[in-house]
Known about the structure:
Elements: E1 3-6, E2 13-16, H1 23-42, H2 48-55, H3 59-68, H4 96-112, H5 125-137
Antiparallel strand pairs: 1-2
The structure holds zinc ion (2 copies).
Amino acid sequence: MAELRNCPRCGRLFAYQGRNLCKRCQEEDENEYLLVRRYVRDNPGATIFEVSEATGVEEEKILQYLREGRLQSKGLVAALECERCGRKITAGRYCPQCLKELESQIKSVVKDSGVKKPEIKTDSKERMFTKDSYLKRE
Ligand SMILES: [Zn+2]
Ligand SMILES: [Zn+2]
């Protein structure tokens, strides 16, 4: 079932399908992305500023492509920093080392909070209900 939302960019109402933009803006977004990708491929040493100038796409958007790992370029690498330690990175939000540490932190939190696979069988209706509704959500 589609949820109706207002497109944050153009304000039109649209059926939300996982992406927070209406179809028209999504297409626009995609075109901008392709433009940036093509430029970066042809000009591997270009900085974010140059790419933005040449393509007309905002620097913030280009940074976002980098963070999402959709764009990779040696020239653009210097623009991204690990949000945790400030090291230069090529994609994402954290450097590989911080990612590792964060991952193990998350794992230990999950363990501590008692979120485990159900090992003990129980007849409790409440638990059954919870499990069922959880499955339905997926
Ligand atoms: Zn829109
Ligand atoms: Zn880091």
